[in-house]
Write a structure and sequence with these properties.
0% strand; globular; 21 helices; mainly alpha; 80% helix
Amino acid sequence: MAAGTVVSRATGLIRTVLQAAALGTGLLATTYNTANTVPTSLYTLLIGGALNAVLVPQLVRARATHPDGGRAYEQRLVTLVLTVLGVGTALAVWAAPQIVSVYVRDTPDTHQSFALTVVFARFLLPQIFFYGVFAIVGQVLNAREKFGAMMWTPVLNNAVLIGMFAAYLGLMGAPGGVGDITAGQVRLLGIGTTAGIAVQALALVPFARAAGFRFRPRFDWRGTGLGSGIHAAKWTLLFVLANQVSLTVVTNFANSADQELPDASVGYTAYTYAQTIWMLPQSIVTVSLVTALLPRMSRAVAEGRIGDLRADLSRALRVSGVVIVPAGFLFVALGPQLAALLFAHGAADPEPLGQMLQAFGLGLIPFSAQYLLLRGFYAFEDTRTPFLMACWIAAVNIALATVCQVVLPVRWAVTGMAGAYALSYLAGLTLTARLLRRKVGGRLDDGALRRSYAKLLCAAGLAAALGWAAAHACAASTDPGTWSTALALVAGTVTMALAYLGLARLLRVSELRRLPGLR
């Protein structure tokens, strides 16, 4: 599972770099990326949130308690999911212009990019169905304790997209702007992107068959427990909706920046790429810890061992912080060099992206901690409080993003929004920690968490300053270019890593020894 996650993220990064080389980070790339955001958003709203939070746990219970091992319930659930997704996908393709208008305004000045986004959306919206197939078949496998396939098949999607963007660059060349892209190029991007998701989804089917799953449509849904499961998912659906509202507002603001400065790489695409890089440590470290801990925390709550729950959360925060804290400082210190090395190719301008990465930077720490603390509420089967926290974070993010849109120059507005996103999670973490303290009847520990983070912040901050100095000294002593940027990044990263490890050892950060896992 861990290897699959790492390989998936690595190939995903290669795909993103090739995509930036092919489409740049300006308005043209934004038409494609905005259209590609719509299927994931609609899938999550349609059924994705409910599927993961409520319906799948019920599937696991059905396998354990039903006389037939849950087979009938499984067939009904898969039939229901595929039916909802099939109808929803067809309606979404039909209503593509109206859906795109939520993210991009159609005015005389923006009509060309709006129309191209709609065309891309019609090709990409069928992904909704395949996202659902991937999720439901993957969870059928997870219910049978077959976890590996779902971690590895996203690599197939990345491989398809890497091949598609490579072909795009090799055979067709990169167009300069929205008006330069041809119908053939649009078809290649649209069909290829959807084909990648389809391959990812359908590749799970043989594994499901090998695990004993046989699909037979069953529409006898009444009186089988599916209705109560969907009703129980209401807070999760509202949680997703709150996040989508915030995403929609920021997407509109960022798209308007691309419209005003179409070749400056200061809008939605740069924001998306920076956020993707920024979230990599969270995706690999924190998510892995949560996967291991959530079943244990749920059992602790069910057995009344609240002290064990507090200890697990404290330990997870401290162990993940060993990586998350220096990663946040790394983005602040070396974000421009990292962006220049990855995205200074083709039509991409890496400078604004690097500055957005710096603005996101330290927000990785509260973002990761918030993700972990919310799992404390899920262990109590409390989905209402996470919804309220999502509303609070979304409100803060929207308010700060609006200030950035109104006050800052277009060149800096979306960079400000990256900082606003980070601050919104700091506000969310503050309130979440207070509510969780009430839920578990006290602090997570006797102060070990605060002491650990004080040491980590001190070590990472000093190490980041040394890494920044080493990178700039290296860049100043070499001629400008890709090799100079690479050498500066390596010098800064190595210096920061060695300084961080030395300072952490000097400060006696005991969690360094426990990083490989929780014991």
